[in-house]
Design a protein that fits this description.
The chain is of the alpha+beta class and 364 residues long. The chain has 13 helices and ten strands.
Length: 364
């Protein structure tokens, strides 16, 4: 990996010069149906489960009111209301869904829970419902999401589960997707309020940005602007640890532009990139890139059969227009100086080739 685009010197020293040239907006991506091969995979690895409530059930609300935050700003979510005939059934069903995703279906965990609020966002690709669950004994609250199932999003969730340090808890049932809430500060909030916090070590932020950038690029997860990832801040005995992790997977392997899969190139991430440039040198950046590649290769080895099944399904599915596939394979072939990418006929095939390079080069 010695050409300009992959050289850590380019990563660290030149991003500020190029980031402003990239994407001012992202067109809405269509949803792709779950194929028979993907459904087989989901069933085989316990991702498919019969659910008492579907996405279509939640669409039957009778009224909605805008939801505002503590600063009286519109959150773009709407709190929805159901008529008395549906509300009891939906609430009970959602508590059972919570038991499935949190406790393997053990209904004893929901005895003291109630559904406090159901919010709906019509602007996201998946048009999600956000469910707030509250424990009546201690007022502790938790969230999960009900979304329209989209094959590319499911592939993104599963790749995150298998190839990143993060575990993803989700369930599908027909055209319904249930996702656990990912805890952390939204990236834009972190940039605005935490980036210069003296309690955080600058080098740890820079390290995590480089590793996150590498994870997204290797598996072709796109559109990682600040509102599509979170920052997990964990106190440790020697300072505070940082982890950046994706929370939106709608743009898994869809766009034809290579730079769309590198968070460093979004102008919204410019403060993070500039922070990274000022606190880390090229040799150290190369070290962190290599570390993350070794970790990805190791995770592939420990989940070899599961990765194989997922990529076989993904390589057969249509996840993007063919012109996007052709553009991306050309750009990746040039980027890596590897004509094997030109053989890719689907986005899944390009992901498989990208991961195969890591697996082979890191001696897994």
């Amino acid at each position: 990996m010695d050409n300009q685009d992959t050289n850590p010197n380019f990563l660290v020293k030149s991003l500020g010069e190029t980031i402003q040239k990239q994407h001012s907006g992202t067109p809405r991506k269509p949803a792709f149906p779950i194929s028979d091969t993907l459904r087989y995979y989901l069933t085989n690895f316990n991702r498919e489960n019969r659910l008492p409530v579907s996405y279509n059930d939640l669409e039957q609300f009778s009224a909605a009111a805008s939801l505002y935050d503590d600063d009286d700003q519109d959150t773009l979510w709407k709190t929805v209301i159901y008529d008395h005939v549906l509300v009891a059934k939906i609430s009970e069903g959602l508590k059972r869904v919570y038991a499935i995703i949190k406790a393997g279906g053990d209904l004893s965990v929901i005895q003291h829970l109630y559904v406090d609020r159901i919010d709906y966002c019509e602007f996201g690709n998946s048009k999600p419902f956000r469910i707030r669950i509250v424990n009546s004994r201690n007022d502790n609250q938790d969230y999960f999401y009900v979304k329209k199932a989209d094959a590319s999003r499911i592939y993104g969730l599963e790749l995150e589960h298998l190839l990143s340090p993060n575990r993803m808890h989700f369930i599908t049932d027909g055209d319904t997707l249930i996702e656990e809430h990912i805890v952390g500060l939204p990236g834009d909030m972190f940039i605005d309020s935490w980036l210069d916090n003296e309690q955080l070590k600058a080098i740890r932020i820079a390290k995590e940005l480089i590793k996150f950038n590498e994870r997204c690029f290797v598996r072709l997860l796109g559109d990682m602007r600040p509102y599509n990832f979170i920052v997990d801040i964990t106190p440790d005995f020697e300072g505070t640890q940082i982890r950046i992790r994706a929370m939106d997977f709608d743009q898994q392997s869809y766009d034809g532009r290579k730079n769309f899969y590198l968070p460093q190139f979004f102008k919204e991430n410019n403060p993070l990139v500039g922070f990274c440039v000022s606190h880390i040198d090229a040799d150290t950046a190369h070290q962190y890139q290599s570390e993350e590649q070794h970790l990805i290769a190791r995770r592939m080895k420990t989940s070899k059969l599961r990765i194989k099944g997922l990529l076989e399904s993904m390589s057969k599915d249509t996840l993007a227009p063919i012109e996007n596939v052709h553009q991306l394979r050309q750009e990746l072939a040039y980027h890596y100086k590897d004509d094997d990418f030109l053989k890719g006929q689907t986005m899944g095939g390009l992901v498989r080739q990208s991961l195969q390079r890591i697996y082979e080069s890191k001696g897994a």
